[in-house]
Amino acid sequence: MGMIRLFTEKSSADVKKGIGSFDLGRPMKWGTLMKACKQRNMSFWQLPERDIAYSCPSIVDILLAWKKFERQVVRFECLKFILKYYRDVVFVKQNQFNTTTKAVIDSLLVVLESVKYSSVDDFLFGRLRR
Question: pLDDT, tens digit, for every residue of 3-60?
């Protein structure tokens, strides 16, 4: 659920934990990224590209691609895109944790496809569109 919080919060332990699972064996500076968000009172989506590049140089291209995609589509589509990315790229090692996490992601994707929500917040808190 931490990745979903990336869409609903500026900086928090949940956001850091969610984005922190995206290490792919490379050293990351998630704390630096969250500190930049907190200091600027901005979400990841609002943060200048230079701050993201400084905080996460080894995956800056992926993170900036997410930001570009988020500007071009409805937020739900971006959320689904990122969840699929985590399922297909991040949690690929064969172990019980990854298998369970991928099953949870698949369940979230089914819900996102089948139920209409007004916002990511509404999805997170189970509030249906009327």
Answer: 777 777 877 777 777 776 666 555 556 778 888 888 999 988 999 999 889 888 878 8
Q: Which two tokens stand for residue 38?
A: 């907190």
- Measured CA to CA, the distance from residue 7 to residue 44 in angstroms comes to 8
Question: Which of helix, strand or coil describes residue 80?
Answer: helix
C-alpha triplet 47, 49, 53: angle, nearest 5°: 110
Alpha-carbon distance 3 to 82, whole Å? 8
CA atoms within 13 A on the CB side of 93: 9
Burial of 6 (0-12, 13-18, 19+ CB in 10 A): buried
pTM to 2 decimals? 0.78
Taking each helix axis from N to C terminus, what angle separates 96-114 and 75-85, rounded to the nearest 10 degrees? 160
